[in-house]
Amino acid sequence: MAVVETRGLVKQFGEGAAAVDGIDLASADGEFLVLLGPSGCGKTTLLRMIGGLEPPTAGDVLIGGRVVTNLPPRARQIAMVFQSYALYPHMSVANNIAFPLKAAKVPKAEQEKKVAWAAGILGIEGLLDRRPRQLSGGQRQRVALARALVREPNVFLLDEPLSNLDAQRRASARDELQGFQRRVGTTTIYVTHDQVEAMGMGDRIAVINQGRIRQLGTPREIYDDPADTFVATFLGSPPMNLIPRNGHLLGFRPEHVAPRQMLEGAGGDLVPIHFLATREEYLGAERLVYGEVEGAKAVARFPSTVDVPAEPGRGYEFAVLARDLKRFDAATGLRVAGPA
Amino acid sequence: MSTIAATPPPETRERRYLLDREGVLGPLMLLPAVVYIIALVGFPLGLAIAYSLSDVTIGDQGLDWVGFRNFVDVAKNGTFQKALRNTFLFTLASQVLVLTLANILALVLSSDFKGKRLVRFLILLPWTTPIALGAIGWLWLLDSVYSPIDWVLRQVNLLGPGTIFGPRGNMYWTAKADLAQLSVLLIHTWRTLPLATVILLAGLTAIPQDVKDAANVDGAGFWRQLIYIRIPLLLPIMAVATLFGMVFTFTDMTVVYVLTRGGPIDNTQVLASWAYFKGIEGGNLAQGAAIAMFLFPVLVGVAVLMLRMARRTETT
Predict the structure, then answer these.
(1) ipTM field
(2) Which domain does A251 fall in, by range?
(3) Domain end position, chosen among A198, A227, A256
(4) pLDDT digits (tens, 9 = 90+) for B234-256
(5) Which residue of A39, A182, B78, B101 is surrounded by the most CB atoms within 10 Å?
């Protein structure tokens, strides 16, 4: 078990903007920490620097309190699962899992025991003689996890391990992966661009954009108290509405909009929103109503179980609870304290 | 419910043009290739087989059947035995050398360094040189009196009285049996190395970066990665490079013809050159054809292997 820490980590590829632009980050011991951001934000580069696959331009990486910046990956006591799983195509599943042990010159009998143990945890005992190309995506992912687990590393580094699975399989894989991490209790750093994965699995999420951490916090903190407009609009689908008012941006989530009379019993001050509906999407479990508020585009989301009239072309008197309103500086996009 | 437009009744359909019919167009398009193969591969092969079973010479072109007498005569001949041994020796030894060197070169060239493009270009050069010109260049380099290689050896005190290669002032590369064989072997290596290097380089770059990264993270050092990851993943492409090199070396007569003419005393003779000397220069077409026919089984074997590999890459 170990804490992973980065201090002022910078990665510059050639000229131009840095891919990773001075990141200070510390995981807790045994934590499931998610690095979330759009593609090209530097999250994978950050992970590769932690793993030792990419030398940083500046700054340090610490694992378990030890500075490992100049150590090769094999000396860092880490294991990594890649987006493509990167299984060795010419080796059987058993040999794939045993490869890190062979590299560490573990005795043969011990190797077999460890392989059986790791295969048992991931439920792939029946696949040990197969080749990677004979496996499904989900099975490959488990083999990759078993290969990562077998060395009992201090840290797991996972680079979008679910992105090659189909949508159905992904939901159950999320569940399995988190259960697995809880069981082994190893500090895990997980890179994804998928907010559902991040919200669903992370103990904490670091939202990254343009090489910098925009916010670090629990899924609830990130969603309910976004630090800036990037975080506010990157998380949530559809994202937070931002309405310019008095030199600020007024932010509220689509699910927080409701007809006035429905919110009156909720307890709390109401802020009226005049909502001009333009279009409606029926999505089964919910309805999305697109429209305009004070000239800016906005979305409201209603559960299908609640009957809210919202005909395109008509204006409605909606409201938001004052505590659900966030204020952002129009120029910097940063959160501004105080009531709306 | 939406409706689907009905198909027009058959009588209103227009007739297809003749060239739109696959049964006509397919054979038509294949015809040039078939004619080419029959005229330039099939016919000469048939002729060679017919010659090898007859007593044809340049003087008497009648094809009188003699059965396998040419093969028996040829096989008893001491020069033929030398040529057969040399052909296999040059092919196998040069390909072992080429494979080893090409692996090293490909590994070096796949890493990043300044001037990589220039070095790659230089390494490819021998492949672009016409083989006869290359051989003539080597003929000069290995000249018995004016060899620049000898000059260099003399300058660094490896050749001359009281040195390892001494006491004479020249190596006489093409005049001594073992040196002449070594020279032919090295020229074949020099010639096929570039292609093998480029093929292996392509194979190396085709190994996914993730797999290399995974091996790094899994704790494998350079040698373990080389032996357990890179070489096994390169094996199929190495086989392709070797088969190409084998065909080129096995059937080549230019190097021997230009450099040594098979000498000294037939010590560098190969099947291709011996077939030429015997059949064309010696005028015994029947025996020349019989000698050349000994190349056939090996080439068929190589062709089968290549086709099998091509099919495997098609299906996976």
Answers:
(1) 0.79
(2) 238-336
(3) A227
(4) 888 888 888 888 888 888 888 88
(5) B101
